[in-house]
Design brief:
Layout lengths: L6 E4 L3 H12 L5 E4 L17 E2 L6 H15 L2 E2 L2 E2 L1 E2 L3 E5 L2 H16 L4 E4 L1 H7 L9 E5 L3 E3 L1 H9 L2 H6 E4 L4 E7 L2 E7 L2 E4 L3 E3 L5 H6 L7 E11 L16 E4 L4 E6 L2 E6 L6 E2 L16 E2 L3 H14 L8 E12 L5 E4 L6 E5 L3 H17 L21 H13 L23 H6 L2 E6 L2 E7 L27 H11 L2 E4 L4 E6 L3 H8 L11 E7 L5 E11 L2 E6 L1 H13 L8 E4 L4 E7 L3 H8 L14 E6 L2 E6 L8 E7 L3 H12 L5 E2 L2 H11 L14 H4 L15 H10 L3 E8 L11 E4 L2 E12 L4 E9 L8 E6 L2 E7 L15
Helix pairs in contact: 1-5, 1-9, 2-9, 12-17, 15-16
The structure holds flavin-adenine dinucleotide.
């Protein structure tokens, strides 16, 4: 065994093999893959997966990863045998609700580049004559199919390029990972030690065990999952091809099916979650059948057995042969776990990855390891997304189990998890409850979505034409309309406690931050600066505001959910041995936004600081005492109105709320929740990171080029921006309005030019002030000219949209009718 390696990859399942292969293709050598079982049927989850690939996914990156995977597997072969069978897929509808949902899924698939369409019952039966004619229709997706994962792993690993750069050690177990000063130094195995400063764990269900070797909780849970095969069917007699029927999903009953030669494979999620703790996982040689298989539990398959007979009548009461409870991983949010852990330099994970995504994941992991940039927006799956409360074992159990049982459910994008809740509460949470707030969870925080205490406003405004029905009415309340309008008319009080607030101070702080930021931070003390932080390739890694509190002291404020991601990015750039301090003040500071035309009147009532334009200009900050509570006030708002954000001590949060809210009645200013916040921001054209902003687009493409100062000196991403400018814009974030008044869409819908999908909706909202449905999306520049007519498809219906100048809302032109 080698004693040194450039990287040690733990696990030769499909993910480890795919990453090693892609690293070889990037020219890496000196790669070691350690596998506790035999190659390539290792006994991990890959060995038992029937290999169904459904590319459609509500998350765009996941869908792109599956498309990359299909491309990769389709080009692989082992001993003349294919590694991928593109037979297509059918997701069938058993209920009218599912049929509607499939229309939405067709839209999502189209948005992300799939060839997906709705087909009739008869068309579905043409594809698969074994289906019951009780189905109401199906979604058919071209190029979905069956992956032979073990074959693909072997094909990649025995390719010439991999053979030259990778050493595989089978029947070798990683027993420990050593690190010094938070950096990986070596890997211990039962066959010896390998020095390395880079470890990638692709250990699948064993991922948490490997994480523990470096003191990291990997928030995933191994789950048992029932899978069985039928005896040969006489209807398939003589069938010797691997697969010819499209792969099949019966989501109304949480099941999937595949034909394999003359038998059918049946998978069922239709049972309670059966988590397996990491300690229960057996070593290869100890496992009776395989370490990722437990004994089949017929009681958990019973409901599925009955449902199978309903969907595929020839399978009714059929005898089953191969029967397993296979084990694979589920995470707290349904996304894989990818990237380098901020806690230990050189320790990377690529876990909880399905066969469906493993080809693409291997590719981006290799790119990420090679250049520090995965080349695609990975924020949903990045290890940096986890908050400390996400690492709690009970939390992991509850969330992973829920994700298992809901895997095929129809989930509204605004649907909230029921538990665990109330993890982080604003100091004035009790007051919000008294105001009958409806809460949503974000980064562990309970944030008001709307307040039923605003019901009296329903009489004040003419909202009849804004009322909703159907899908867009779910997880929504008309309170969102009146809170929006009341903010525009007078003002709203917003709970911003969940924001991440980070103090950065010490000698060199200005230079450090200025090298990260695209805007110029060398501004007078007191200035508030909006800026993006870029990747080397010029993509927007973070967007945030930085307030200069002193010569070498700054307050960075960023959104709640992504705040930790931003904080990790900043911390990762701090030079080793630097004296600069990075203090996360999020848990000790509350924040309240007072936004709207009368916000000055309200705040002037509770503070003696002069709030006039000349004394307290836009994008500046001042200390302010509110009823004796020392606060920092920033003159900024995220809704396109006059306003301030007030930051005060968490311990005095209730008193601060009482002071501000207590005076708000005089000005008809009301507490406002996130639902209104969203429509206010979209109306004003403010970008949201994760929707409009991502590492895949530069600030110029995203329309925030105004906050880039190329002449200020060097900063991360500057060279790439200059290069982008030279090449010219190809795509641009574009604002569109729906031609038909009263129509609202929800986001992720395809934007069409004729029959061609040219983009998808990044954010959507109804602009109640302007009485228009508004959408944003990246369009090729040739389609982004003002006045251009396009279509957006929502639940199978085409709606005309017009490219519009932005922002759609401008307070100077606004006259509200009440
Ligand atoms: P694995 O294949 O488990 O590989 C991890 C490897 O790490 C193992 O070989 C293990 O031996 C090795 N290892 C662990 N610890 C150590 C150590 N300490 N030292 C050395 N080696 C170690 N996905 C789909 O996309 N489509 C499907 O249809 C599908 N159906 C499934 C049905 C079943 C019954 C099961 C079980 C899974 C299914 N999956 C499916 C999920 C899919 O199989 C997995 O998500 C995927 O195979 C995980 O790949 P991996 O490489 O991460 O893990």
């Amino acid at each position: 065994m080698k004693s040194k390696a450039r990287i040690v990859i733990i696990g030769a399942g499909i993910v480890g093999c795919s990453t090693a292969y892609h690293l070889s293709k990037l020219g890496w050598s000196d790669i070691v893959v350690i596998e506790q079982g035999p190659l390539f049927e290792t006994g991990g989850s890959t060995s038992h997966a029937p290999g169904l690939v459904f590319q459609t996914n509500p998350a765009r990156t996941m869908c792109v990863l599956s498309q990359e995977t299909v491309k990769l597997y389709s080009n692989l072969e082992l001993d003349g045998q294919a590694c991928y069978y593109p037979v297509g897929s059918m997701e069938v509808a058993w209920t009218p609700e599912r049929l509607e949902e499939l229309k939405r899924r067709v839209g999502v698939g189209t948005s992300y580049g799939l060839n997906a369409g709705l087909i009739t019952t008869n068309e579905a039966l043409d594809h698969n004559p074994l289906l019951s004619d009780k189905i109401l229709g199906a979604m058919f997706v071209e190029k979905d199919g069956i992956a032979k994962a073990v074959r693909a792993a072997e094909a990649m690993s025995t390719s010439q390029i991999t053979k030259e750069s990778v050493d595989f050690y089978e029947f070798t177990k990683v027993t420990n990972i050593n690190s010094i000063n938070g950096r990986v130094t070596s890997v211990e195995t039962d066959k010896g030690l390998i020095e390395t400063d880079m470890v990638l764990s692709t250990a699948g269900i064993w991922g948490p065990k490997i994480g523990r070797m470096v003191g990291i909780t990997v928030p995933q849970r191994a789950m048992q999952h029932c899978y069985a095969k039928t005896i040969p069917l006489k209807e398939l007699e003589g069938q010797t091809e691997e697969v010819t029927h499209p792969v099949l999903r019966h989501q109304d009953k949480a099941m999937y099916f595949r034909q394999q030669e003359d038998v059918y494979g049946i998978g069922s999620y239709n049972h309670p979650a059966l988590p397996v703790s990491a300690n229960e996982l057996l070593d290869y040689e100890m496992a009776p059948v395989s370490p990722s298989i437990k004994s089949f539990t017929p009681e958990h398959f019973e409901a599925g057995r009955v449902d199978t007979g309903d969907l595929l009548p020839v399978l009714k009461d059929i005898e089953l042969t191969y029967k397993i409870n296979g084990i694979f991983s589920f995470t707290i949010d349904g996304f894989p776990i990818l990237g380098e852990w901020p806690q230990v330099k050189g320790f990377w994970s690529a876990e909880a990855v399905w066969i469906t995504h493993a080809g693409g994941v291997g590719k981006i992991m290799a790119q990420w390891l090679d250049s520090g940039d995965p080349g695609i927006d990975t924020h949903e799956m990045d290890v940096a997304r986890f908050h400390p409360h996400n690492m709690d074992e009970k939390y992991i159990d509850i969330r992973a189990s829920q994700n298992y049982v809901e895997v095929y459910d129809i989930i509204h994008p605004a649907q909230q998890m029921e538990e665990p809740r109330n993890i982080k509460l604003s100091p004035f949470h009790k007051s919000q409850k008294e105001l009958k707030a409806s809460f949503i969870e974000s980064g562990g925080w309970e944030r008001p979505n709307w307040f039923d205490s605003n019901k009296m406003l329903l009489e004040k405004y003419d909202i009849a034409s804004f009322l909703r029905s159907g899908w867009e009415n779910k997880e929504w309340s008309p309170m969102a309309i009146v809170e929006h309008l009341q903010t525009r008319l007078n003002g709203g009080i917003f709970d911003l406690t969940s924001f991440t607030k980070v103090e950065i101070k010490g000698e060199g702080s200005l230079d450090f931050l200025n090298y990260l930021a695209s805007n110029d931070l060398d501004k007078p003390v007191g200035k508030v600066i909006y800026t993006s932080l870029l990747t080397e390739s010029g993509g927007v890694k973070c967007d945030l505001t930085i307030t200069r509190l002193g010569e070498e002291r700054f307050l960075v404020v960023t959104g709640g959910v992504m705040g930790l991601h931003d904080l990790n990015w900043i911390a990762s750039k701090l030079p080793v041995g630097s004296d600069i301090e990075i203090n996360d003040l999020s848990e000790s500071m509350t924040a309240i936004g007072v936004w709207g035309p009368k916000s000055r009147d309200l705040l002037q009532k509770v503070s003696s600081v002069d709030l006039s334009n000349s004394a307290f200009p836009y994008m500046s900050s001042k200390m302010m005492s509110i009823n004796g509570i020392e606060c920092l006030a920033l003159r900024i708002s995220y809704v396109g109105e006059l306003g301030w954000e007030i930051y005060g001590p968490m311990s005095k949060g209730q008193a601060l709320w009482d002071s501000i809210y207590g005076q708000s009645g005089e000005f008809d200013i009301v507490p406002v929740g996130l639902a209104a916040f969203e429509s206010l921001r979209v109306e004003k054209g403010y970008r949201l990171w994760g929707n409009e902003l991502s590492t895949e687009y530069t600030p110029y493409e995203s329309g925030i080029g105004f906050a880039v100062k190329l002449n200020k000196g060097d900063f991360i991403g500057r060279d790439a921006l200059i290069e982008h400018n030279r090449a010219g814009l190809k795509k641009i974030l574009t604002c569109m309005t729906l031609d038909k008044q009263g129509v609202v869409v929800m986001g992720k819908e395809p934007i069409m030019f004729g029959n061609k999908c040219i983009g998808y909706v990044t954010s959507a909202a109804y602009g109640y002030s302007v009485d228009k449905g508004i959408i944003y999306g990246y369009l090729p520049v040739e389609y982004a000219d003002e006045g251009r007519k396009l279509d957006v498809i929502y639940f199978g219906e085409n709606y005309k949209v017009t490219v519009s100048a932005e922002p759609i809302f401008d307070p100077k032109n606004f006259r509200l009718k009440t």
